[in-house]
Amino acid sequence: MSEAFDAKQQQRTLEARVALAVEHAKAKGASACEVGASASQGLEVSVRLGEVDTMELSRDQGIGVTVYFGTRKGSASTSDDSETSVREAVERACAIAQFTGEDPAAGLADPDRLATEFPDLDLYHPWALSPDEAIALASRCERAGLEVAGIDNSEGASVSSHEGVSVYGNSLGFLQGQRGSRHGFSCVLIARDQVGMQRDYDYSSAREAGQLRDPEEVGRSAAQRALRRLGGRKLSTGRYPVLFVPELASGLVGHLLQGIAGGALYRQSSFLCDALGETLFPAWFSLFERPREMRGSASANFDSEGVATRENSFIDSGRLASYLLSSYSARRLGMNSTGNAGGARNLRISAPLESFEALLAKMSRGVVVTELMGQGVNTVTGDYSRGAAGFWVENGEIQYPVEGFTIAGDLRRMFASLVGIGDDVDRRGNVHSGSWLLEEMMVAG
User: What pTM, to 2 d.p., does this model score?
Assistant: First the structure.
């Protein structure tokens, strides 16, 4: 696949189109202009019960133009990278700007915050994967899972490979591109016993294909995860310690980030408004980002406004040390950009880590949550209520699977009640975290 996608040539083309858009905007009288452009290619194949279920070959591109006439702003986009289409997009953006209101916070990033250093972060590793090879890999993954005793059916296994390039430029003279790749396996299997059926999954994801787990390992792991859920029981309603497995603990970090995002803060629609400097977590817990980590899943030298990325400490020894700010949200709050237009990058936790077994012993009696359902999280009020499934723990040991219950709490109290973090760190995504043990939550059976 990689031969058909010449990333270097794509980057040169996009850079030329971005420069064209900026110059055309100036010619139309815009006081400032910024342009983001991207192109990507992907292959995704899914197999179910040994047969090809879906195959998708995708090729996407887009150019977004934003112009400023003083503090009036207009935006337009196109998926056609021809010079004519780019010029037309600029003209549409200019026309729109004439009808928008004045906004003192609108404008480009501050010039002294733009990135000036662009080290190679080793993010681009294309995979010359043919459709036939992808089918074979997905088949191996699913077959390994189906061979595990007790597995009754499959919802399929998939293999994906994506690569792309993005370019950002503005009328301050900034023009830079970044290339990246992402590949993965996944498998969803169904286990059955006399009582009923259960499903579960596993996956592997990496920037370089050589860093992926073996497809057979992913399939067998998905099978074991489904089997261990058989025989699920109901829970009695009560207040219990709750242990979130790593995949779900990272979601709690996500709720924190939503709460400290500049857009929510200046709109006064966050449970963490005016919380800067407050203690939210135990003193032994810190959370920070490493946006220039080599091969990091979200690494970048600059954010979506061209601002240089940097290591930001969001939680420092339990205290909220920084918000998550773009240039616009920073101006609305009377602060400075944190280089987070587009979000946080490569979230990492600093805390004493314990084994999963030690966390079970510490909880003694409670619930391990392995699956969450529903959207019952309100980041305006901090209210948290989700359907869940997992395992009941007694005397520090897992006893049996449980299902059909709800866990509820308040995000601030949940953060403050953190009593332990596991060393079972999940490194597949943007947030690297182990399991989180919370002192107590309401569990409704």
Answer: 0.94
